[in-house]
Design brief:
The protein is 15% helix and 17% strand.
């Protein structure tokens, strides 16, 4: 019976990695004895917020009628944070230049992929 108990204790120690405390080991300093060189717990747990990333967004500089070919003077670029930028908006005027407005685009409206086309359309038919 005693052998089984000793064997069980050995297996538990081996599996958990626990060891018996050694009385001859050096005393460890208490947590309050020296804090030099270590960050305080109140500041180490707080992450500093990162500034939002800024991206360019292509906007209409003026109203653009349907089926109008878009030129540089019809476009402007504004800077938006990534969390405020319109989804599917173009980030460079070179992607929009020469395209045709599928629908009317208002001034200061973001140019997105669903309002322009490479083909000029009028009343739903390609021309």
């Amino acid at each position: 019976m005693r052998t089984n108990l000793l064997l069980y204790a050995t297996v538990v120690v081996a599996l958990t990695g626990c060891t018996a405390p050694n009385a001859s080991s050096a005393a460890t300093p208490s947590p309050t004895s020296s804090r030099e060189g270590s960050p305080s717990p109140s500041t180490s747990a707080i992450a500093t917020p990162q500034p939002p990333r800024i991206v360019p967004v292509v906007l209409a500089a003026r109203d653009i009628a349907p089926a109008t070919q878009i030129t540089d003077d019809m476009l402007t670029v504004a800077m938006f944070s990534t969390d405020q930028a319109p989804p599917y908006a173009f980030h460079s005027p070179s992607f929009v230049r020469g395209q045709y407005a599928v629908i009317g685009i208002h001034a200061d409206q973001a140019i997105t992929d669903n309002v322009i086309s490479t083909v000029r359309t009028r009343c739903g038919y390609a021309q």
